[in-house]
Amino acid sequence: MLHIVVCIKQVPDSREIRIDPKTNTLIRQGVPAIVNYYDLHGLEEALRIKDEFGARVTVITMGPPSAEKALCQCVSMGADEGVLVSDRAFAGADTLATSYVLALTIQKAEDTWGPVDMIFCGKQTLDGDTGQVGPGIACRLDMDQLTYVELFESLDIEKQEVVVRRHLEDGVERVRARLPVLITALDILNRPRRASLPGVLRAARYKPIVWTTNDFSNLDRSKIGLKGSPTIVSKTWVPEPKQVNTEYVDSANVVAAATDLLNRLYATELPQKLGWS
Amino acid sequence: MAERTGKRKPMIGLQPEGDIDWSSYRGVMVFVEQRNGQAKPVSWQLIGEATRLAAKLNVKVMALVIGWQVSELAEESIYHGADEVYVCDSKELEHYRTRPYSRVCLHVIRKYKPEIVLMGATNTGRDLAGAIATHLPTGLTADSTQLDVDEERLLLASRPAFSEKMLATILCKQFKPQMATARAGVFEQLPRDTTRTGEVIQVPPQMDPGEIATEMIEFLETKGSVNLAEAEVIVAGGRGLGGPAAFEMLKELADELGGVVGASRAVVDLGWIGHDHQVGQTGVTVRPKLYFAIGISGAVQHVVGMQNSSYIVAINKDANAPIFKIANYAIVGDLFQIIPAIIQAVRTRKLERLQLLKY
Ligand SMILES: Cc1cc2nc3c(=O)[nH]c(=O)nc-3n(C[C@H](O)[C@H](O)[C@H](O)COP(=O)(O)OP(=O)(O)OC[C@H]3O[C@@H](n4cnc5c(N)ncnc54)[C@H](O)[C@@H]3O)c2cc1C
Ligand SMILES: Nc1ncnc2c1ncn2[C@@H]1O[C@H](COP(=O)(O)O)[C@@H](O)[C@H]1O
Fold first, then answer.
1. What is the b/e burial string over B324-343, where b = at least 16 CB atoms within 10 angstroms of the residue's CB?
2. CATH superfamily name and code, A2-223
């Protein structure tokens, strides 16, 4: 049977994050945690493959104990197993340290449930926002990577091949790749399903598997957490809100308003910058 | 099930290879992204910024060109500010693929030792940078919008965080090179100077053909391709347009201004226009010189994706729409009357100019 791993992350719902105007720091209290938006699209694609071909879908996440909830949500949608990799020592990881731990986790999942045929990640996270973890995992596991996938065209189990469409700024690329392969999902890939009733019932009782640093025999502690992260945040600041002096164009007469707007635009450096004659 | 051919050689915890005397790493390298021998504008923008950083560090600007029949881009890189260009030209490299491209990058980086490597934060640039940084290994900052160096020669890469609510400066002390991807449209390219000269170094492809499993079948250029990230003028519409038909009007205005059409997520979700047009947190972050927000309320997820436009014109019939808070020019009124009037005014003005030129 196919074995598919989906990497998900629980993230603060960034819509709800506010900046404390006095201290210029993030207000995280009361900010709901959600499964990273794009990761659900990765899960959905894995579940579609499971529906069509039969597959074991293992969902993994590295995060705090509270991320169990995110895994349960994935189980309610149809994932077979959820693995939480959690340990204080993993905290503070950048993308390099994160992909290290996730690659080890996938290797352990292979040892436990059999070789992995496909890995799905999201295009990027809403909090980290880098899209680097997927390529990092592929590199460490020596797999090919297909990033920014907008359409899963076909899977040929006999030939061990997938054909997908990758979304680029100027067009779409159809690519064929051999399994095993790591795919990062765009939101246009599919529409994530709702949990089914049996799924909800299963998730209500489900306890994700938890792996800590002690569960990895080959873990190099210098490569995890804050210590294993080469990038350092040296400073954060809140950009000065752009001071805009909004000029209102009187719209009582639309023809006059249009001319007025153009006059104002022509009075800026725009004509020169844009080559308007 | 078919037997697996290529055996994987997992290398989970990677170590720096060879020389780790970081002080021997000198120079600022830019990856020149191209398709069919056409460089992406972000490549020249990054060479422009690299020139500034290199002057501060007193080192050379290096450009890395990978592809097939791309020797012209070596010259172009020099015209745009590079001092040294590394070129790997091979049929196998005609289309971007992670493995063969990253092998060339790793070879060049390890051999010629730049202290900083910059790539565009495009889908290709992010795909490649993520693979290389893991291999080397080194720290990689995504999506930078400001770059600088300090007196310890550290790269200070700043990027928006938490839906653009904050900016964070990120650095990497532990490894070299220091890597960052940077957004299109943020940095200025230098004027193209054909009198500049530089050195071109040919690099052999680093290939192990049996190993290359992925294959590009075809490239489908997006119909009426919109490249929002690089557009200088964007005319964006929202739910206020009432239906897909009104986008024709926006297209007309965009054409008159040499721009492209953008959209809010609401109308993309409604299927009025393709996803490629979506501006915002889950769409494209844009920085045009001029942005029209037409019938768009100005939800925070939209605003984070366009607030750095140089000039914003908002047209909305609701005087309290939040979009007006960030607009330079506000027109409160019905877009169905105002947009045709603006199109007409632009045409009239063009005609007047033409006549001025004639006589
Ligand atoms: C996780 C998440 C991510 C999101 N990401 C994005 C994103 O990337 N980009 C994005 O845009 N949104 C995003 N959104 C959605 C966002 O919250 C808003 O729902 C969306 O931007 C609203 O689009 P709108 O302004 O077109 O529609 P509305 O909010 O409905 O606004 C329509 C506006 O048109 C005006 N109007 C109506 N008729 C006329 C007329 N005749 N003349 C002039 N004005 C008129 C109205 O006054 C109103 O202000 C996201 C939401 C979520 C939850
Ligand atoms: N802590 C994590 N646990 C599991 N998956 C993750 C984690 N961080 C990132 N990922 C995966 O990597 C993708 C890209 O994340 P990022 O590089 O942070 O933007 C996400 O969409 C997830 O699929």
1. bbbbbbbbbbebeebbbbbb
2. HUPs (3.40.50.620)
